[in-house]
Amino acid sequence: MRLTDFRCYAALDLELDPTPVALYGANGAGKTNLLEALSFLVPGRGLRSAGAEGVARKDASGPAEAWAVFAEMETRDGEVRLGVGARNGGRRETRIDGEPAPQGELARLVPMIWLTPAQDRLFAGPRADRLKFFDRLVYAADPAHAEAATAYDKVRTRRQRLLDEGQADPAWLNALESEMAGHGVAMAAARLDALIRLQGEIDARPEGAFPQADLALDGAVEADLADGLDAGAAEDRFAAALRDGRRRDGAAGRTLTRGPHRTELVARHRDKDQAAGDCSTGEQKALILTLALAQARALARQGGVAPLLLFDEACAHLDAPRREGLAREILATGSQAWLTGVERILFEPFAERVQYFEVDAARVERSA
Ligand SMILES: Nc1ncnc2c1ncn2[C@@H]1O[C@H](COP(=O)(O)OP(=O)(O)OP(=O)(O)O)[C@@H](O)[C@H]1O
Known about the structure:
Blueprint: E1 2-6, E2 9-13, E3 21-24, H1 31-39, E4 58-59, E5 62-63, E6 66-75, E7 78-87, E8 92-96, E9 99-100, H2 104-109, E10 112-115, H3 127-141, H4 143-165, H5 170-204, E11 213-218, H6 220-226, H7 231-244, H8 246-252, E12 264-269, E13 274-275, H9 281-303, E14 308-311, H10 320-333, E15 337-341, E16 355-360, E17 363-367
Parallel strand pairs: 3-15, 3-16, 10-14, 14-15
Antiparallel strand pairs: 1-2, 1-6, 4-5, 6-7, 7-8, 8-9, 11-12, 12-13, 16-17
Bound molecules: adenosine-5'-triphosphate (ATP).
Adenosine-5'-triphosphate binds at residues 7-8, 25, 27-33, 57-58, 340, 342, 359.
C-alpha cells in the first residue's frame, strides 16, 4: 500500500502480508487516516464521508495539489493494482492495473466492510444512518445494489426539484417516477435477499461473544415484495404511490412518499428480547459486529474472497471476553481486518496471528 499526500501522510510505503493488521498509537497519530485511505478503494466518499476534495494533505502553504492511494491486492479478479486519487481539488480518478477505469468497477473487485466510532450508537441514532450501514453491507455482496441506489437517488432528486418548482409536466414526472420505481424495486429486492442471507448466517452461529440479532426491514416496497408481489406489480404500485404523493412531496420539499429511501432496518437483541436501540453502547457495538462479521462470513463463503474489514476502534467498548471473541471471529473469516486502538494490549487475543504496526506522528513502523 502506498499513500501520497493523503491526510497526514506525505509519502508512505507499507509492505503487508495477508493477515490482519493491528495499528496502535496515541490519539492523532494517523491510524484512522490509514483506514480512510483504504476506504477510497471502493466507490463513495470514504469512511469519513469526506469525499475526494477533502483528503489532500494540508500544511501551512495550503492543500497538496494531488493525493493518491495505491494498493496491490487480492480481489475477485485475482491480484490487481488499484489506484485512486484526485488533482487540484477535482474529481476522483480511478486506475485498475494502471488503466483509467470507472469508479463503479472497484465495487465489483473489492468487498469491504467498515465500522467507525461514529456508528457506536447506530441503533439509537437516525434512521438514515442505519439504512446507510445496512446498504453498505449489501453493496459488499452485491455491487449492482450500489448502482441502483445511486441511480435512484439521482432520479429522486430530479423529481423533487421539479415538484419544488411547482410547474412540472405530468408526462415528464411519469417518466421519472417509473424510473424511480424500477431502481427502487431492484434496491428493495437486493436488500431483502441480503437480509435473508445475513439472518441465516447469524442463526447458524451459536450465541458466543456477539449476540444473536433478529433483523427486519420496514419499508413499503420491501413489504410488497415480501408479500409475494412480483417485481413488475411492485413497480406499478410504487409508481402510483409517487404519482398520488406529488402534491404532498412538493409542499413538503422532500420525498415523503414511502419508498426505499425511507426504509428502516429493525434489529432486536434476541437473548434480551429488546429493541437494539434500547441496548447499552457496548451491546449495540456488539450487535453491529454481529452483523458485520456475519456478512464477512457470508461473503467469504459466497465469493471466495474474504472482504477487507476496516474496524476503527472496534475494541474500545468491548470487555475482555468480547475482545477475545472478536479475534476468534475475524481469524475464522480469513479476512484482512485492519484494527486500530490506542494500545497494543487491546490486540493481545490475536497473539502472533496479526501484524503489528506502531503509528506515531504519521510514521508507521512494523513491530515484532
Ligand atoms: N488533510 C490533512 N492534512 C494533514 N493532516 C491532517 C489532515 N486531515 C487530518 N489530519 C491530521 O491527521 C492526524 C491523524 O488523524 P487520525 O484520525 O488518523 O488519528 P488517529 O490515530 O486515528 O487518532 P484517534 O486515536 O484520536 O482516533 C490528526 O492530527 C489530524 O489533524
